[in-house]
Amino acid sequence: MVVPDLWSGRCQCGDHTYEASGIPDDPHLCSCEHCTRLSGAPAMAWVGFRRDALKWTGPAGEPTYFSTWPTLHRGSCSRCRTQLTSVADGSDMIMVTIFSLTRSGELAPVGHSYREAAAHWMSITLAPDPQRRT
Ligand SMILES: [Zn+2]
Ligand SMILES: [Zn+2]
Asked: Domain of life, per the record (predicted)?
């Protein structure tokens, strides 16, 4: 049995900090048009937690949300602009940026969304997906 763990994360300036419990779900990269433009980088790295298992603990509470699609909302710090979260309407999951986590080094992406749209020079080795292991 995997013991649910406590994870913490924060933005660069520390206005927003969070704690999430449980097993991080589906760590993956995304190279969609929105992720690359928002980050100014070839991909963003995301991992999911149950929405009710994440709480905001910093002085500024929840991040500021910006909708990149009518149904998809991305949270960032209004002071330091760190990208923190992505939430889809109707989902019970919240995605957090892997590198906002204190223990980001423990997670490796198992997938790469919009890989075909990624920069042609980007070459990565994905971790084996535990959910697809037989
Ligand atoms: Zn900040
Ligand atoms: Zn994306």
From this structure: Bacteria
pTM of the model: 0.91
Mean pLDDT across the chain: 93
- Measured from the alpha carbon of residue 75, the closest ligand is 1
Rg of the chain (C-alpha set): 15
Beta strands 17-22 and 72-76, pairing class: unpaired
* Cα–Cα distances in angstroms (integers) from residue 119 to residues 33, 46, 68, 73, 93, in the given order: 11, 18, 21, 25, 28
Fold topology of 5-118: glutathione-dependent formaldehyde- activating enzyme (gfa) (3.90.1590)
For residue 9, how far is its CA from the centre of ligand 1 (angstroms)? 11
Ligand nearest to the backbone CA of 97? 2
Residues with C-beta atoms within 5 A of ion ligand 1 = 11, 13, 15, 77, 79-80
Query: Ligand 1 centre and the CA of 75: distance in Å?
Result: 11
**Is it the case that residue 4 has pLDDT exceeding 90?**
no
